Amino acid sequence: MSEASSSSSREKQGSIPPGMVMGPDGKPCKICTAFRHWKPPANASKSTAQSQKSSATVMAAIAAETASSKTSPSATDTRPDYCPPDVEQLGRATWTFLHTTAAYYPEKPTPTQRVNMLTLIRALPVLYPCTHCASHLGETMKEHPPDVSGRVGLSRWFCERHNEVNERLGKEKFDCSIQKLDERWKDGPSDGSCD
């Protein structure tokens, strides 16, 4: 998702680091970019980066400092705890919230509960911080309207939307059977390892 949508922006903005996503304002979008992609271009010097004060150079400086302060090869991919979330952390937290909310949604919701759930879902394409993710969800919702008829329908709807994102990102799909969804988001495995 972000790689494809950033390629046309990259052409317009000149050379930006691979994986960096441009926001609708034409500037690098911190919340739309995975932390591991907050790296300075190979030809940028530290003094130039500090003098420009743009969000891209600030993000690059954070990544460079983090990389130099740690010795492990994966250090540049690790976001320090004191940093704002990146697109991956925000995505995981959002999916956790949505799947768990669906798992506890009533089997037979009242009209008010249905309206409230629809309001929550419809707010995401408008309010979600990653504009690329938000606009994609909005388009997807036009093709596949949310199912707020009950817990099972809502859980499957979120799982199917999540699997669409996973597929675009080259990740494995999740089994959307209600048994697997309940095991993951509500009850835990039958072996009691989560009790």
Task: Provide the β-strand percentage band.
Answer: under 5%
**Total individual domains:** 2
**Overall outline:** globular
Number of strands: 0
- Which CATH class of the largest domain applies here? Mainly Alpha
How would you describe this protein?
Residues 1-24, 64-84 are annotated as: Disordered. Keywords: Disulfide bond, FAD, Flavoprotein, Oxidoreductase. This protein is mainly alpha-helical and 195 residues long. The chain folds into 2 domains: 2-77, no CATH class; 87-187, Up-down Bundle (Four Helix Bundle (Hemerythrin (Met), subunit A)), CATH 1.20.120. It has 8 helices and no strands. Helix 4 (87-103) runs antiparallel to helix 7 (151-168), helix 4 crosses helix 8 and helix 5 (111-127) packs across helix 6 (131-143). The longest helix is centred in the last third of the chain and has 18 residues, at 151-168. Residues 1-13, 44-53 and 61-73 have low confidence and may be disordered.
Outline the secondary-structure elements:
Elements: H1 2-13, H2 46-52, H3 55-69, H4 87-103, H5 111-127, H6 131-143, H7 151-168, H8 178-187
Keywords: Disulfide bond, FAD, Flavoprotein, Oxidoreductase
Organism: Somion occarium
Domain ERV/ALR sulfhydryl oxidase: 83-185
Summarize the structure.
The chain is mainly α and 195 residues long. 56% of the residues lie in helices and 0% in strands. Its cofactor is FAD.
Output the keywords.
mainly alpha, globular, about 200 residues, disordered N terminus, Four Helix Bundle (Hemerythrin (Met), subunit A)
